[in-house]
Amino acid sequence: MIYDVTVPISNAVPVWPGDPPVQLTRKSHQSRDKSHTVRVTAIEMGSHTGTHMDAPFHMIDGGKHLGDFPLDTLVGKATVVEIPPARSIGRAQLEDFDWTGVERVLLKTENSKHWTDGKFYEEFVYLEPDGAQFLVERGVRLVGIDYLSIDKFQSASHPSHFVLLKKNIVILEGLNLNAVPQGNYTIFALPLNIQDADGAPTRVILTN
Fold first, then answer.
1. What's the CATH fold of domain 2-7+47-207?
2. pLDDT mean across residues, the chain
């Protein structure tokens, strides 16, 4: 089974308030021999649009860029953990799961149901700093969540980002895990190859 957990990019996709809006503009011109129309799309959007990856440089001065991470960080075994209904995810919500051998974790919450709201969902479930620290202690290499930030909306200091990024743990945000059962998968998370990137839109595929 192959699951595409990437949010489609369109002019209507929700973006983080204050980030550049998505502007996909159709362009076209006639071929030289006038036999057909050539179509292209002008693309304007922020590096943290839709399903995207955060590098340490996103928030840490002198931190690693996305291109500094080997592809084997982004491809390999991953575990989808479905979180029972909660406003946030702390150590207490994570301790009951079996973390043996988990290298990459994708946190599935009720957030995934809100991609079709037609607007930005402010009350999304987020990761508490003690939950982030728990994952650091488990030795994970990548942490994903199913909305546009791993920290609380309007967080002043982004504590969970710092807990993870200071340890060079890659963050995947904006996943849609609605159709994916809890369990073990192989993940392919490939960001656009942007030079010196703080983050980039990412196509994320899970297989089992």
1. Glucose Oxidase; domain 1 (3.50.30)
2. 97
